[in-house]
């Protein structure tokens, strides 16, 4: 039988990225948390964590984390069905990984009513849409929004639609770098702005036009900062259409290739046995995103 005090200690260490913060969340001493992890490892007969500045779960640790995530959600369903078990506990907290551009555009409008109705608190983990699924594979989130359609074992995926990106720059930047016109070669030679090391959207955009290989770019891991740098003339970048309609209307940003938008599909991944709460959230997101994302 599982000892859920031990599993809760494992979940807290991974979710809080360390033993000290896990101890604070659990109301225990750091040594007590460490002892619970050691006892869990003794019971399963192998390490559940790779110790480091940021502890990471081992393969068996990931399986245990996936299990405890789903148990939490199923317990919430049961307490709602059996009033005697409901002891007035705090609202459920869901850890969800999503990309920064979704957070900066459609996410808040899509989930606010749901969170209020179902007494849900969110803990959002921001990851690039290309790699968000690793958080589910690692067992430290209950769901994620990412650009990958294939779910991890034990999970389901749902196509939400696509975010449309457009290549934009400020008028001054265009005058400096594209006076002879916008071509694949001139795009590759002008400084670009890239969200982070896992963001290959600009790379794919250039490659689709035959401009493969290295190009100069700034790194800016902030959706708002990305827009500000582009508006200031630091570089050109692929920006969500949802985020810059006013800037396009005012002329502060201009399209480089209006005929070449790029659509990034987004998928919602959630645990198959995640309980009714995740099922309700999934249905809610499906309805909400139908109005704001590009549909096939």
UniProtKB/TrEMBL annotation:
Alphabetical list of PROSITE patterns matching this protein: HTH_LYSR
Organism: Pseudomonas turukhanskensis
Domain HTH lysR-type: 2-58
InterPro entries reported in the protein's UniProt record: ArgP, LTTR, LysR_HTH_N, LysR_subst-bd, WH-like_DNA-bd_sf, WH_DNA-bd_sf
Domain of life, source organism: Bacteria
Keywords: DNA-binding, Transcription, Transcription regulation
Any Pfam family hit: LysR_substrate
GO function term, MF aspect, one: DNA binding
Protein name per the record: Transcriptional regulator ArgP
NCBIfam families for the chain: argP, PRK03635.1, PRK13348.1
Family: Belongs to the LysR transcriptional regulatory family.
């Amino acid at each position: 039988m599982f000892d859920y005090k031990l599993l809760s200690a494992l979940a807290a260490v991974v979710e809080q990225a360390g033993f000290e913060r896990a101890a604070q969340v659990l109301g225990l001493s750091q040594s007590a948390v460490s002892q619970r992890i050691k006892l869990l490892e003794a019971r399963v007969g192998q390490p559940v964590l790779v110790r480091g500045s940021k502890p990471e779960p081992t393969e068996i640790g990931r399986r245990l984390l996936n299990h405890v995530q789903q148990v939490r959600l199923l317990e919430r369903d049961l307490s709602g069905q059996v009033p005697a078990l409901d002891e007035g506990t705090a609202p459920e907290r869901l850890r969800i990984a999503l990309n920064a551009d979704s957070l900066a555009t459609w996410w808040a409008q899509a989930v606010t009513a749901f969170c209020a109705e179902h007494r849900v608190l969110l803990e959002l983990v921001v990851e690039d849409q290309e790699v968000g699924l690793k958080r589910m594979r690692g067992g430290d989130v209950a769901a994620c929004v990412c650009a990958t359609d294939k779910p991890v074992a034990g999970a389901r995926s749902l196509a939400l639609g696509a975010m449309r990106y457009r290549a934009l720059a400020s008028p001054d930047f265009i005058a400096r770098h594209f006076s002879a016109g916008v071509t694949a070669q001139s795009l590759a030679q002008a400084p670009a702005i890239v969200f982070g090391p896992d963001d290959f959207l600009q790379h794919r955009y250039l490659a689709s036009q035959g401009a493969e290989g290295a190009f100069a770019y700034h790194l800016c891991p902030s959706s708002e900062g990305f827009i500000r740098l582009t508006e200031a003339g630091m570089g050109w970048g692929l920006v969500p259409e949802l985020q810059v309609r006013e800037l396009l209307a005012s002329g502060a940003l201009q399209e480089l290739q209006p005929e070449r938008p790029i659509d990034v599909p987004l998928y919602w991944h959630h645990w198959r046995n995640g309980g009714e709460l995740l099922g309700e959230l999934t249905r809610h997101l499906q309805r909400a995103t139908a109005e704001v994302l590009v549909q096939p």
